[in-house]
Amino acid sequence: MILEDTQFSEFSIVDTGVDPLANSKEILDRYDFTKIVATGYGRYLAQVHLDCPVITEIKAYAFGAHYFFPECRTVIDIGGQDSKIIRISDGKVLDFEMNDRCAAGTGKFLEVMATTLGYTIDQFWREALQAEDTIAINSMCTVFAESEVITLISQGKDRQSISLGLHQSILNRIMVMMGRTGFDDEIVFAGGVAKNKCMVHLIEKRLSKQLLIPDEPQIVGAVGAALAAQSNK
Amino acid sequence: MSNHEKMWKALGLDVELHKELLGSIDRTFQQTVGTQKDRPEGMEYFDHALHESHSGRVAELIEARKKGKKFIGTFCIYVPEEIAMAADAIPVALCGGTQFSIPYGEKMFPRDICPLIKSTFGLALAKICPYGPIKDLGVGETTCDAKKKAWDVVNFHVMEVPQKKGKLDFDLWHQAVIEFKEKVEELTGRKVESSRLNKTIKTMNEKRLALQRLNALRKNDPPPLSGLDALVVMQAALNDEPARFTEYLHELNEELEERVGKGVSPFTQGMKRIMISGCPSVMGNWKIHALIEKAGAAVVIDETCTGTRYFENLVDNTAEDLTEQLRALADRYMKINCACFSPNNERLDAILKIVKDYSVDGVVHYVLQYCHGYNVEAIRVSSILKQAMIPNLKVETDYSTEDIGQLRTRIDAFLEQLD
To answer: Least CB-CB distance to A98: which of B409, B416, B417?
Structure first.
């Protein structure tokens, strides 16, 4: 993410891959920049090799969400590696909850489940939205949920219903975290899973509220880091 | 084959696997404690004590046993060491803090019990604990369900730690202390006499005072030693011979007093001051302290069994006869605010006092995975800290490194909040 004055000029998204450092260097070579801040799980790798300050993605998402929606007080971030609820005020973190250790409640969970069901990620949520019925998925663990899904498929259960059930299991996980932190309006939904329209629909329905979603929900953290670089915060 | 290797072989250990264990613990030590800068010179003794815990210290115990002493393995700071020592026994805490032995522990014990128990029993089951073969008695206690059922498996003497803090409960604990005295007397064939007990009470009180002096020094801004180093001292406290430990600790304390005078510290003034509260970090486990201090904050006090709960409160040494001494001991140990008690309000009061005394900026409530007592008590801890406007973060984790990325993010974000 490149920030010039108050405008974001360009951004680039790549998979972490097996060599995140080489990936980020390749992108950085394409741009001129005066300051850089790293965030996310690879931040310390970047700190050492790119000689830059770091902030956590929690702070970065708070900055980023505030930038896109200044009235934001709660951020739901569901990314590949974890999911978080962040309570903010004026872009400052007040409190947060984060799922720990396993992939339950993350984008990775959805990715694995889509593959198990023979869908692409987009097909997965589209099919789930069309489900007439739902099947409760009890396992939170990705590994156990996968065998649960395989069992359901072998019982001849409807794939759309299983898909909806899987989305609902993530919803339940998110609601537990929101119950712990509490939440205020406005609520911003960010991270890659915010592109999943079934997830958006389910959260909005459960909360009876409209979520604010940036056009590019995956870059909110990078925007936050760029803002931190600019303001030296 | 070195002398220590011969000793391990004679004890029936799996010498090759034991080598791997020591290598694994040493790597963790070097990556955490070992990477620190500006360590006090006096830490050398305590580093050495940890490194010798499976060699020199074991050889020392074998020698003592040849001279007729008995060796008692303990697993909780609730066991009154004074009594064992007065009957010519040597008590040593044997809790395991290494991930290395957990897969071996899981061969017998369920996966979903705390890592401390799995690590401890894993060491024994894998034949890589040199203390097991020389142990004359194992003493367990009833501070949690998993532990108390584990003692049944290995046929230990079990001290009943009550679940509440009323009069009935104190009487029960007092009786458990008396029974423990009788048990060690039976083991060693030596009576616990009042004059001997007076001496061992003095020895242990002096050890506690030395630890209190060390921790008082951590109140300085910046503290003269890191939280990791203070933890190393505490881990050595659980293993080392008490009088010798106290002597070296006073040497370290004197050096630290000088460092305070000269303003020498691994930290800079004004660095965020963190209290770790909750479960113990026993030898092999430096995970949380290292994460917090690498993230740029100072751990200034531990409200844990490897912290204040071990060294606060002295045993009243004005008691005049054995009966009174045993009651004084029961009294002192009953003041350890373990989360096994319901309710445990004294712990909450203690936490608030420590926060004030040590000018704590934030509290990390450390829960070993599946430790229900501390995990649930965290709700009340968090609530009283919130009321006192002290930021706090609960982390639940085991000894493995699989969650390091997430933990680092949470701890870093918590520290960012303190800015």
So the answer is: B409
Which residue of A lies nearest to B413 if distances are taken between CA atoms?
Answer: A56
CB-nearest partner of A56 from B395, B402, B409: B409
Bridge partners for B101 per DSSP: none
Phi and psi, residue A8, nearest 5°: -90, 120
Per-residue pLDDT tens for A116-153?
999 999 999 999 999 999 998 887 777 778 889 899 99
Contact A101 B406 (CB under 8 A): yes
pLDDT of residue A233: 66
Other CB atoms within 10 Å distance of the CB of residue A131 = 19
| Contact with chain A for residue B410, Cβ under 8 A | yes
User: Which residue out of A100, A106, A144 would a mutagenesis test of the B interface target, given it has the greatest number of B Cβ atoms within 10 Å?
Assistant: A100
Q: Give the phi and the psi of residue A71 in degrees, each rounded to 5.
A: -85, 5
Q: What is the DSSP string of B102-153?
A: HHHHTTTS-TTS-HHHHHHHHHHHTT--TTGGG-SEEEEE-SSHHHHHHHHH
Consecutive H or E run containing B92: strand B89-93
Do A163 and A119 form a contact (C-beta atoms < 8 A)? yes
pLDDT in tens, A209-219: 999 999 999 99
The complex's ipTM works out to 0.89
The CA–CA distances, whole Å, from B386 to B360, B363, B372, B412 equal 13, 11, 21, 19
- For residue B343, is the peptide bond before it cis, meaning its omega torsion is within 30 degrees of 0? yes
Which pLDDT band holds residue A79 (cuts at 50, 70, 90)?
Answer: confident
Q: Which residue in B294, B409, B414, B418 has the most chain A C-beta atoms within 10 A of its own C-beta, making it the best mutation to test that interface? A: B409
**Beta pairing, strands B89-93 & B70-74:** parallel
In which band, very low, low, confident or very high, does the pLDDT at B161 lie, cut at 50, 70 and 90? very high
If you ran DSSP here, which 8-state letter would residue A214 be given? -
Q: Rounded to whole angstroms, how far apart are CA atoms B407 and B365?
A: 13
What does the mean pLDDT of chain A come to? 91
Q: Which whole number is the average pLDDT over A34-51? A: 91
For A56, the closest of B395, B396, B413 (CB atoms) is B413
Beta strands in chain A (DSSP E): 2-4, 7-10, 74-78, 83-89, 92-98, 187-190
For A30, phi then psi, to 5°, come to -80, -15
Q: Is the pLDDT of residue A101 over 80?
A: no
Ordered domains of chain A (ranges, CATH): 1-69+218-233 (3.30.420.40), 71-213 (3.30.420.40)
Confidence tier at A68 by pLDDT (50, 70, 90): very high
